[in-house]
Amino acid sequence: MTNRKDRRHERLFVIEGVRLVEEAVRSGARFALTVYNPEQLGTTDRGAALQAALSSMPNTYAAPAEVIEAITDTVSPQGVVAAVGWPELEPGRSGVQLVLDAVQDPGNVGTLLRTAEATGVSQVICLAGSADVYSPKVVRAAMGAHFRLPIVQDVDWDEAPSLLIAADNVYAAVANATMPYYAADWRQPSALVVGNEANGVSDVGLAVATKHISIPMVGPVESLNAAVAGSVILFEALRQRKLGRS
Amino acid sequence: MTNRKDRRHERLFVIEGVRLVEEAVRSGARFALTVYNPEQLGTTDRGAALQAALSSMPNTYAAPAEVIEAITDTVSPQGVVAAVGWPELEPGRSGVQLVLDAVQDPGNVGTLLRTAEATGVSQVICLAGSADVYSPKVVRAAMGAHFRLPIVQDVDWDEAPSLLIAADNVYAAVANATMPYYAADWRQPSALVVGNEANGVSDVGLAVATKHISIPMVGPVESLNAAVAGSVILFEALRQRKLGRS
After folding, report:
1. pLDDT tens digits, residue range A76-95?
2. Domain B4-85 - what CATH class?
3. Tens digit of pLDDT for each residue in A223-242?
4. Which sequence spans correspond to the domains of chain B?
5. Considering the entire predicted model, what is its pTM?
6. Could B221 and A182 be called an inter-chain contact, meaning their C-beta atoms sit closer than 8 Å?
7. Averaged confidence pLDDT in chain B
8. Nearest of B24, B166, B30, B144 to residue B92 by alpha carbon
9. Helix, strand and coil percent figures for chain A, each rounded to 5
10. Residue A46 CB: number of other CB atoms within 10 A?
11. Which residue of A222, B125, B131, B205 shows the fewest CB atoms closer than 10 Å?
């Protein structure tokens, strides 16, 4: 489970901590293996309730804190770690879809998943070259978005357009487009493509996009962090949809 | 220079890499000490031009790559590191001011400084309890904002209101206010208070604020990363000011 190939073959990923494991239970995730420390979980009512819920799952083992520390890569694991199946969620029918075109930093991918959930994105398509959606750093930064947000990964640009559901426009976020992101009509079904931290949206992505948009800035700032840029645009899309106008 | 107390006493901070040192030269920063590696800098025209500019600064020394690696804490330093004076910039007269109320993570503080510059914020007030604005991680994440953005730090809430310039409203970003951030009129001189990652805006900050605002979200997301939340609001403020309407 510590490398990408194993995670893909088994279609499993690792979650740590009470909150994430609770969400996995609630969402009906398939639990392949769970290790918990009764002394840590037993100290709170919430932990005890989780322990009771886990007792009906297959392959659930009690273990001392040292074992859990050895399995996880966080400094202070919260006494429970589990390998669970990749959630398989159907994408919502309309709204905004997010395409990650080789966003490489796991923190950026996780933050974008969290923002995508917070803004009601209907699905996220992670193109080849992006950080592994199920890697521990992405999972931590996404704070449970994996269980509620339809995510597709390991797709390339040949396949991606056919996965987009009825998008009237595909907007590529680029550094120097003349169209500001807030001039787009995000009330229409659409997709947003966020590109690689160093190189931006790929040539294929730029060609697939129907419009290029930028975030207007003041002064000589070079470019924004990919997670900030994507979040600013997705919250503008939500603002327009909440207000019913642009 | 490696600890906060020394940096404060000398009012110096450390910058690494060609781009940041170039910006320091351009902004007329006071260079206290510079160490560069002629072999690394000499390989590009840009590096050579920087080396020429540095030759007129006091206390500039050539050194082998190992020395620079030992001084800096980046993995691949770009062949130049300098200790320069804290920039002292006068705040702009109007616009949006940003108050960091114990934002602790250096990456968040750096990202917020970068966003503040990109959105034309007129000054940033970092309250006690926030990450040191001149620490290496903040400096790296801010990407040069220190040289162009007026920043005050080591201030507490007793003093902060007197530093705010003619702010018609002080908005505190909180989790559950009924007023959405886009209902505020950011064309008026105003201030935005962003709070601590775990505890939000302090009680004093909430009392000083004239209005509390929230970022509306979809679904059960707990809260946004402080840097993302602050950035979303500051770009909305810029959007309103560019369009001249809310």
Report:
1. 678 899 999 998 888 876 68
2. alpha beta
3. 788 999 999 999 999 999 99
4. 4-85, 96-243
5. 0.91
6. no
7. 90
8. B166
9. 35, 20, 40
10. 12
11. A222
